[in-house]
Amino acid sequence: KYGSIKFLYGGAAHLSIGQEAVSTGAVAAIRQDDCITSSHRGHGDSLAKGYFTIKAMDRPELVELITQDEKICSYLGLKTNLKNHEELVEEALKLHLFRAIAELFGKEAGYCRGRGGGMHIADFSKGHLGANAIVGGSLGMAVGAGLASRALEDNRVVICFAGDGAFNNGIAHEAMNMATMAQFTNGLMSKKFGVPTVFAVVNNQYGMTGQQRGEVTGIEFLAERGFGYNKDGMHTEIVNGMDVLAVYDATARVVELARQGKGPVLLEFWCSRYKGHSLSDRLDTAEDETYRL
User: Fold this and answer.
1) Domains in the chain, please, with CATH?
2) Which InterPro entries match (predicted)?
3) Which candidate among 46, 92, 164, 166 keeps its CA 20 to 30 Å from the CA of 37?
4) Distance CA 42, CA 122 (A)
5) Which of these, 207, 198, 196, 195, lies nearest to 169 by C-alpha position?
């Protein structure tokens, strides 16, 4: 129940409340045509990618976006005859938010026609290649997209958002090992150009049953692993994920490295998750207070 409105929500919802600075700062630092992949906790990533892509659109692009589905446009009462550009942007943002929320509720108006839900929300037209219910699944997708960009020479960069738990899965090693293979930068693969993928560890410091530091890994920071993959240490950085400007600064810096063929890159954003693992996990007072110390 939201206020006086009753509603039915079916399925899981893995909230990212507290992690907003990571999504906002990182996506703000990339271009409209760059891509992202995300995790099961990817609602914020989806909202951010759509927001900044829409903000970069010109008038014809905005009008085309708003009018692509006349039924939804009519339902929301969206206007395309507005002379002020910012007002037209606001109309497009209303549509973006509506379609994202509709997808979470499994509605036909959603970005994936309600088939993806919260854990598989995607919008290829805006460079969002999809969230993934499989923990770590987005890492392989991001490497594939990065390899495609390298082959096509389209100068795009791919950011892969994944949680600290994902980086303990086998796919994380496979993906980062493949992305850092020497043959991409030593000329064996036709040109000296690294895979333009940025691996973004969204370390909210605890999972459903354990935390990364001092419990389920033997290292202090997951970023340390970058030094095991190539001589540049994947240009790894540890960033305050609660500071949107710090996130933006770090991402903008490493994205340019990736665009220059010096990738891949590993960033670790330390942030907080203020809610439980999912709707079925109530974050109790003791856990909450201990975490915030």
Assistant:
1) 1-42+131-293 (3.40.50.970), 45-119 (no CATH)
2) DH_E1 (IPR001017), PDH_E1_Alpha_Subunit (IPR050642), THDP-binding (IPR029061)
3) 92
4) 10
5) 207
